UniProtKB/TrEMBL annotation:
InterPro entries (alphabetical): CHAD_dom (IPR007899), CHAD_dom_sf (IPR038186)
Coiled coil residues, start to end: none
Domain CHAD: 20-298
Name of the protein in its database record: CHAD domain-containing protein
Annotated TM spans: none
Originating organism: Saccharopolyspora gloriosae
A Pfam family per the record: CHAD
Length: 307
């Protein structure tokens, strides 16, 4: 469909799904809701004036991908998988800028209470990140202006206009929705069992991704399954938040060390001192959140047992 770029083409009323509707209709409603959010925030993401707009675009893309993956057995995957792949492309384009938004905001905030001379050293340390951020933003705007993005939006708009292509699975109601959530939870539980009590930072990152998929799948089921699913959503969010803070601290610590290393074997002592202060703070946070993740897992496990 050749609609003007920048117009949604969506029906005036959001797509809805009832309790007894098939899973494909719940996926359609979820895609419609996330697409409306994506389109609402795209102008702000383009301008770069409001980083939160870009964040909301990225979250919308992630949720659409997660819903398509979780509900895969109930969809025609010849249709859904290519759409997931294109959403993955857009997510990567958005993610590069968003990750730098978060990192720069975090490091600037940390340096804001330094003395004036140390703030100047921090600004010099962050210089390469600023350059990287500008380049990533330029690349994102090119991508958003391109034909590939236009085609993806058209495909999503077309998808929510009519019933989605479904698989040959006959039964796809509340019981099957619960089974989708249970499947994602079992993946989280199995990973927790495998990594033990002293996981690596990389293992905690993988666990965070699985927790996010569980949360997004529970969002798909919440309108049908009600209060127990809302409680699971809350516990999954807290679990994800703890692991997300751990991941952010890991990334910030590593990037600061990389920035310092890039200045050569004998960096300016003032810059090295500032880098050391930042690394110390991020390492402290990383270790603190390592201590918290298992408690948040126990809460999630207890809540999941009631679903």
């Amino acid at each position: 469909m050749n609609r003007p770029f920048g117009t949604s083409g969506l029906p005036p009323e959001p797509v809805v799904a009832g309790r007894t509707d098939p899973i494909a209709q719940h996926v359609r409603a979820a895609l419609d809701a996330r697409l409306r959010t994506l389109l609402e925030h795209e102008p702000g993401a383009r301008s770069g004036e409001e980083p939160e707009r870009l964040h909301q675009m990225r979250v919308s893309v992630r949720r659409m991908r997660a819903v398509l993956k979780s509900a895969g057995p109930f969809l025609d995957q010849r249709w859904s998988e290519p759409l997931r792949e294109e959403l993955g492309w857009l997510g990567r384009e958005l993610g590069e800028v968003r990750d730098l938004d978060v990192l720069l905001g975090r490091l600037r905030g940390e340096a804001s209470d330094f003395e004036a001379a140390q703030r100047e050293s921090a600004a010099l340390l962050f210089g390469p990140l600023e350059i990287e951020h500008r380049a990533a933003r330029e690349s994102l705007v090119i991508a958003l202006d391109g034909q590939r993005h236009r085609a993806l939006i058209d495909a999503l708009v077309d998808a929510v206009q009519r019933p989605l292509p479904a698989s040959d699975v006959e039964h796809c109601g509340p019981r099957e929705l619960r089974a989708l959530v249970a499947k994602q939870y079992r993946r989280v539980r199995r990973t927790v069992d495998e990594i033990g009590t002293d996981p690596t930072d990389a293992e905690l990152h993988e666990l965070r991704i699985l927790g996010k998929r569980l949360r997004y799948t529970a969002e798909l089921a919440e309108p049908v399954l009600g209060k127990p699913m809302r409680q699971l959503l809350g516990a999954a969010k807290r679990f994800q938040d703890v692991l997300g803070e751990h991941r952010d601290a890991c990334l910030a610590e590593r990037r600061v060390l990389d920035l310092l290393a890039a200045r050569g074997p004998a960096p300016d002592p003032a810059i090295a001192f500032v880098a050391g202060r930042l690394v110390e703070r991020e390492r402290s946070r990383r270790l603190a959140h390592r201590e918290q993740w298992h408690e948040s897992w126990r809460e999630l496990r207890g809540t999941a047992a009631k679903v």
